[in-house]
Amino acid sequence: MSEPSTRLFQPPLTIATRESRLALWQAEHVKALLQARGHAVSLLGMTTRGDQILDRTLSKVGGKGLFVKELEVALEEGRADLAVHSLKDVPMELPPGFVLACVMPREDPRDAWVSPRCADLAALPPEAVVGTSSLRRMVLLREALDRLDRQDVRIEPLRGNLDTRLRKLDEGQYHAIVLAAAGLKRLKLEGRIRKIFSPQEMLPAAGQGALGIEVRAERAEVIEALAPLADRATWWAVAAERAVSRAMGGSCSMPLAAFATWVEAPDGGSGVLRLDAAWGHPEGRGPVLRADGQAPVASLDDADALGTAVAHALQRAGAPEGGLSA
Ligand SMILES: NCc1[nH]cc(CCC(=O)O)c1CC(=O)O
Q1: Which of 6, 228, 270, 316 could potentially form a cystine with 298 if both were Cys, beta carbons 3.0 to 4.6 Å apart?
Q2: Ligand 1 and 253: CB distance under 6 A
Q3: Cα–chain-centroid distance for residue 209?
Q4: How does pLDDT run across 85-118, given as a tens digit for each residue?
Q5: Beta carbons of 239 and 251 less than 8 angstroms apart
Q6: Which residue owns the Cα nearest ligand 1 atom 5?
Q7: pLDDT at 282
């Protein structure tokens, strides 16, 4: 005895999704979870501007919002009921009328080093080229390389979906690339991971590794159907991380890292959350600035307040409001 029989007569839920292998994996994952709860589910695949623009760094052409806009139009027009996103790609403020219905359990939030030849940064040959797709990784890699006195190593932009990035590595355009462990693990490519960076070495981006589901705010029945998929501990942690980005000026294309971990799990409804944040100048001017905080968290609002406080600490340390997004 589980599902109420009315479920049987509900129309199918349609998931709007990008068509990269990772996006499809994520949509299929949500589809399977919903089907297991008795829902009929179909997928609506679509190409976004973010998928089409492959030749420039994303921050120069309008930021990560490019990956979600087409999906939102499909929700608005009623062609789909929900959109599954890598939370990292979701802007801090959703457009009016849209909400995050839930945040799901987190995959590995850390960054991965992928290289056929070099075990780690220290093993790079002279004048080596390391590829990566985000300003955050560029800034943190530069810092790590400077610490090794490796000013000879070049960090070059790397765009495209996971398969494209790995192909560019395999073709020899880069000695190594750095990308999210979560994507590699989801696509069963973890065999390519040579090393995982600890959060101390390379602080992850807000929301990295977590999936969020976006819906129209007025679709109460869809929100209700998604509620069982939520993971509260992940949701509150990423809420704190996202609050850092929001308080830093809202742009999601700045060289900003924010990563929260539970010091005490929120089992009984409340826990203790630790939040680390880092900001670096996009052109590598000056040191990477860091701030952290820790607080009891028993609600999304508590998590938000912690994130805002850590962002303000980062600003007191010298990070500009607005984050100097490129
Ligand atoms: N910006 C693209 C993107 N969005 C989400 C992931 C990976 C998986 C995740 O963080 O959930 C990636 C690839 C990457 O950063 O290497």
Answers
A1: 270
A2: no
A3: 6
A4: 999 989 888 999 999 999 999 999 999 999 999 9
A5: no
A6: 86
A7: 82
Atom 11 of ligand 1, residue of closest alpha carbon: 209
DSSP-derived secondary structure for 74-88:
HHHTTS-SEEEEEGG
Q: Atom 13 (ligand 1): residue with closest C-alpha?
A: 180
pLDDT tens digit string along 225-268? Answer: 999 999 999 999 999 999 999 999 856 568 999 999 999 999 88
Is the C-alpha dihedral spanning 297, 298, 301, 303 positive or negative?
A: positive
pTM of structure: 0.91
**Residues recognised as catalytic:** 89
104 lines ligand 1 (CB under 6 A): no
Cα separation, 107 vs 31, whole angstroms = 17
Distance 210 CA to ligand 1 centre (A): 9
Domains in the chain, ordered, with CATH? 1-106+210-230 (3.40.190.10), 111-196 (3.40.190.10), 231-326 (3.30.160.40)
pLDDT at 218 over 90: yes
- The residue to mutate among 64, 88, 162, 192, having the most atoms of ligand 1 within 8 angstroms of its beta carbon, is 88
Q: Is 59 in the pocket of ligand 1 (CB under 6 A)?
A: no
What pLDDT score was predicted for residue 1? 45
Q: Is 86 in the pocket of ligand 1 (CB under 6 A)?
A: yes
Q: Does 182 contact ligand 1 (Cβ within 6 A)? A: yes
> Which pLDDT does position 326 carry in this prediction?
46
The atom number, within ligand 1, closest to the CA of 107 reads 11
ipTM reported for the complex, 2 dp: 0.94
Q: Report the C-alpha gap between 310 and 287 in whole angstroms.
A: 18
CB 253 within 8 A of CB 89: no
